[in-house]
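Milestone 3.1: sequence recovery, worked example.
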């Protein structure tokens, strides 16, 4: 049935967090005349569309934040954003010729971070992660790049790596001379979310013991009613297994 097919396409976009594309599909489905065999509630789709509009607005704000951050960092370094590829290419060659030059390393770290932000603003998570990872390679103490690496890995459903980056992010904050408690709390939130997300994936695959471990770990970092529900669901499913 055409209605079900279009809704399934929308759900696929939703899973990939491509909210604008998902919204278009759901709106197209709702324009079709009602018929027998519809597997999805039209009222639920209407409600979901309202939520999607909010999520799209949030994505647009995040994209603008990335652009603004890139402009700010570029200005502070005297870098023209239009020249970022050339700067990275020339800097990479210079670094190969003189890998002990700390100024080149620092510049490359910031340049990759800036380009990562530009990719991020276009929702290109794969290329954004590549640049953030390069930034961390040149500047291991770049907290912003570490955080972004974790966030991109989580979006790409690479939860093991996401947790690794968030743990490094947390440890750098905790071991710094002037500990920012607000940032420590934020790091715990990132870790809680990453463990919860990985637990959900384990649950889907029927790996209930691993899911339970992740949900428990998530709750150690941050209390959440939703995570407690997921933990109980995993426990119940493991009993039925």
């Amino acid at each position: 049935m055409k209605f079900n097919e279009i809704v399934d396409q929308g759900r696929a976009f939703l899973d990939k967090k491509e909210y604008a594309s998902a919204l278009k599909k759901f709106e197209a489905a709702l324009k079709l005349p009602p018929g027998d065999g519809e597997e999805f509630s039209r009222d639920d789709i209407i409600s979901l569309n309202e939520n999607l509009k909010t999520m799209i607005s949030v994505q647009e704000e995040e994209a603008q934040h990335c652009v603004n951050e890139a402009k700010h960092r570029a200005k502070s370094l005297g870098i023209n954003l239009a020249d970022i590829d050339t700067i990275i290419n020339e800097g990479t060659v210079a670094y190969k010729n003189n890998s002990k030059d700390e100024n080149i390393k620092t510049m490359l770290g910031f340049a990759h971070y800036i380009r990562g932000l530009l990719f991020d603003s276009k929702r290109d998570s794969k290329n954004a992660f590549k640049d953030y990872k390069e930034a961390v390679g040149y500047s291991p103490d770049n907290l912003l790049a570490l955080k972004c690496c974790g966030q991109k890995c989580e979006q790409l459903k690479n939860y093991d790596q996401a947790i690794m980056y968030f743990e490094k992010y947390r440890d750098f904050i905790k071991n710094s001379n002037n500990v920012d408690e607000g940032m420590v709390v934020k790091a715990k939130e990132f870790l809680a979310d990453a463990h919860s997300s990985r637990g959900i994936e384990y649950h889907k695959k029927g790996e209930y013991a691993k899911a339970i471990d992740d949900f428990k770990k998530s709750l150690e970092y941050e209390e959440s009613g939703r995570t407690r529900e997921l933990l109980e669901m995993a426990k119940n499913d493991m009993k039925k297994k």
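The chain has a mean pLDDT of 92. Residues 141 and 172 are 7 Å apart (CA to CA).
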